[in-house]
Amino acid sequence: MNRYWSAVVHGLTPYVPGEQPKLANLVKLNTNENPYGPSPRVLDAVRAEAADTLRLYPDPGSNRLRAGIAALHGVAADQVFVGNGSDEVLAHAFLALLKHERPILFPDITYSFYPVYCGLYEIAFRTVPLTEAFEICVDDYLTPNGGVIFPNPNAPTGRLLELAEIERLLAGNPDSVVVIDEAYIDFGGESAVSLVARYPQLLVTRTLSKSHALAGLRVGYAIGQAHLIEALNRVKDSFNSYPLDRFAQAGALASIEDRDYFESICAKVVATRTRLVAEMEALGFEVLPSSANFILARHPVHDGAELAAALRERSIVVRHFKNPARIAPFLRITVGTDAQCDALLAALKALC
Ligand SMILES: *Cc1c(COP(=O)(O)O)cnc(C)c1O
Fold it and tell me: Where would I find the Aminotransferase class I/classII large domain in this sequence (predicted)?
């Protein structure tokens, strides 16, 4: 207990990000970063911002970037909100759109930041168990609620919910906001952005951290009808008017505009994922079907914690979750380069 702390701070259980270990020759497969660098055009754009103009505040509305994102998705600029990583976009969405009388709903196995935001903003929530096969069952969410949020594909399972099922959720849930967190949609799934025009309660969030290889730049965005975006802007402008600095605005725009590079690195990750899954299965692992840039896999004999520790001794870091208990036997492995995956497979061959 610290007598200087507020009661809110005493009650917080903060999110713990995957570690960024400082090991030599590290094979880093623990935080779903992209193994390929960002587009060379991003680096040029960021370098060009290292200029005298840094003494001036950036555009508080990130208007050029938002126009670029709007053009990419075929929506209006007032249907786009940008933030300092999609974590910030999500935080604002929790306060602006998900804080009501009724509890919000999200899966029992999902992005572990959601309950943290609920703690910060004092939002009631109820978790909904995934099925035996670790799938989201839409019927479970067709009940009065203060809002619904989950990633699609879900994390850390990697499992995708078909767009028709998202639409069924929206059609049966007209009275509260549904947030679809599409952090991993670029690795194999149909985006719900196409439903925004027809569903006034839908907010779709995206990040440049994974598929654009820009985790270090901190850019995320949301797409929804203008009335939802206005709520996010009200929170943003009550918190920090300049969430994206000059480097982030310029670099993110360059990345969005270099479609060929983006598609080439996504295709490489997906090809490596296919091979990694096949080889893990050949080693006896059960691998959940993944539409993301990571897989969730368990060995019938060797426990997740044991394997994660043994891999770490070989300078290979993957993610292991002690909680919830249902995923404790699993490892969550980011899809790296082919060479990184070969190193992982060689180590697992020796261990299993
Ligand atoms: C990585 C991740 C985010 C956050 O991404 P940032 O834009 O880097 O803040 C959000 N949701 C899910 C499900 C993620 O895995």
Answer: 25-348
Q: What sign does the CA torsion over 135, 139, 140, 143 have?
A: positive
d(CA 45, CA 51): 12
N- to C-terminal Cα separation, the chain: 45
Radius of gyration of the chain (CA): 20
Q: 324-349, pLDDT tens digit by residue? A: 999 999 999 999 999 999 999 999 99
The answer to pTM > 0.85 is yes
What gap in Å lies between CA 347 and CA 81, rounded to an integer? Answer: 43
Of 211, 220, 218, which Cα lies nearest the Cα of 264? Answer: 211
Helix axes 40-48, 246-257, angle to 10 degrees: 150
CA 56 to ligand 1 centroid distance, Å: 29
**What average pLDDT does the segment 27-39 reach?**
97
Please give the number of the atom of ligand 1 that sits closest to the Cα of 220.
7
Atom nearest to 155 CA in ligand 1: 13
CB of 154 within 6 A of ligand 1: the answer is no
- The verdict on the CB of residue 181 being under 6 Å from ligand 1 is yes
Q: Which of 214, 211, 293, 205 has its CA nearest to residue 252? A: 214
Q: What is the residue whose two structure tokens read 């075929």?
A: 74
Dist. CA 112 → ligand 1 center (Å) = 10
Most ligand 1 atoms within 8 A of CB, residue of 20, 82, 86, 112 to mutate: 86
Question: Which of 53, 84, 58, 36 is CA-nearest to residue 258?
Answer: 36
Handedness of CA 218, 219, 224, 227 (dihedral sign): positive
User: What distance in angstroms lies between residue 350's CA and the mean position of ligand 1's atoms?
Assistant: 33
Q: Which domains are assigned to the chain?
A: 2-37+260-351 (3.90.1150.10), 40-258 (3.40.640.10)
The DSSP line for 155-206 is TTT-PPPPHHHHHHHHHT-TTS-EEEE-TTGGGS---GGGGTTT-TTEEEEE
Q: Which residue has the tokens 């079907």?
A: 289
Residue closest to 278 by CA, chosen among 301, 297, 306: 297
